[in-house]
Design a protein that fits this description.
The structure holds two protein chains of two kinds. Chain A has helices at about 5-30, 30-55, 75-105, 110-120. Chain A is mainly alpha-helical. Chain B is mainly α. Classes of the chains: A mainly alpha, B mainly alpha. At the A-B interface, helix 1, helix 2 and helix 3 of A face helix 1, helix 2, helix 3, helix 4 and helix 5 of B.
Chain lengths: ~130, ~180
């Protein structure tokens, strides 16, 4: 690859940065709402990756107007439309689980939940 | 040019979300993030996706998260130590993915494999076969109609799951509040 390739890959690189930001939030943060926000960021980055691959420079939105035109690829759009709707369903279900956990434990921090679980099981605080 | 600006804004928003501890601000920035990506979808010719992302990502999902915050807590606890292991994992994964992009067709290349096969058939024939000008609509609602039906099943199942999870709590919460008022 040469320096001239960088504009052609910029989209993909930012998408990867966004994906990794989302992954980092999911792995490193203990707050359950923040974890779901991380998942949403990762998801949207994947959408961007697909849509970027479908774009043709000089193309237009895939709507037939009768004039001869270059259209961007409509198939990634269809896939991502479905993915967005499935994504909101899983987000909503995850948030409902968070609310339920918050009701049962009084906290939505991962380490405090683990501590409460440990105390309920063994009857005492965790020994390191 | 404007897409590079939008992409940079997206990256900045995501990094701000990592740093912020106030969950209300985090949720608001998630809305901003969705709206920016919707703008980017318009630039990338995916107008239908942009509509859905603006309505669902920036609208509904923000409302759901705000509702969750109202029912739980608004501040994230500050961890005692900086997590190093996740950072290493993320950096290695990111480097592997970056290496993978070097072989990808360049952005906007009309000769890329994705544009050579299946897609031209839909672009040429869907107008006469289905008669809807919007190709995305005709694929979604006609060629892949059963898939869209399956998508509705997913939403329905998620709705049932949420009702089962939260259906019982309303009564208990009210009882708790009554007990607090009495005690």
């Amino acid at each position: 690859m040469t320096l001239a390739d960088i504009p052609g890959l910029y989209n993909y690189w930012i998408v990867i940065l966004l994906m990794m930001t989302g992954l980092y939030i999911v792995v490193s943060r203990g707050n359950l709402v923040k974890k779901i926000v991380g998942l949403v960021i990762f998801q949207t980055a994947v959408f961007l990756l697909y849509i970027s691959m479908g774009k043709i420079i000089g193309g237009t939105a895939p709507i037939l107007t009768g004039r001869p035109e270059i259209f961007s690829n409509p198939l990634p759009h269809v896939l991502i439309l479905t993915a967005i709707v499935v994504g909101i369903s899983t987000t909503a279900l995850g948030l409902a689980l968070v609310v339920r956990i918050g009701d049962a434990y009084g906290t939505i921090e991962e380490d405090e939940i683990a501590k409460a679980d440990h105390e309920a099981e063994f009857g005492g605080p965790e020994t390191p | 040019m404007i897409d590079i600006v939008l992409l940079t804004f997206l990256a900045l928003t995501a990094l701000a979300i990592v740093r912020l501890r106030h969950l209300f601000a985090v949720v608001m920035l998630t809305g901003v993030y969705s709206l920016l990506s919707a703008g980017l979808f318009v630039l990338l010719d995916a107008v239908d996706v942009a509509f859905i992302e603006a309505a669902v990502g920036a609208g509904i999902s923000t409302v759901l998260m705000l509702g969750t915050l109202a029912l739980t807590s608004r501040r994230e606890k500050v961890p005692g130590r900086i997590p190093v292991l996740p950072l290493i994992v993320v950096l290695i994964t990111g480097a592997a993915l970056l290496y993978g992009t070097l072989d990808m067709p360049r952005f906007g290349d009309a000769g890329a494999p994705i544009h050579r096969h299946v897609a031209p058939r839909y672009i040429h024939d869907s107008g006469t076969e289905i008669g809807v000008p919007n190709i995305v609509t005709s694929v979604l609602a006609s060629y892949r109609g059963f898939d869209t039906l399956g998508e509705l099943t997913v939403i329905f199942t998620a709705g049932i799951g949420i009702l089962l999870l939260l259906g019982g709590t309303g009564g208990r919460r009210r009882k708790d509040e009554e007990m607090e008022e009495e005690g």
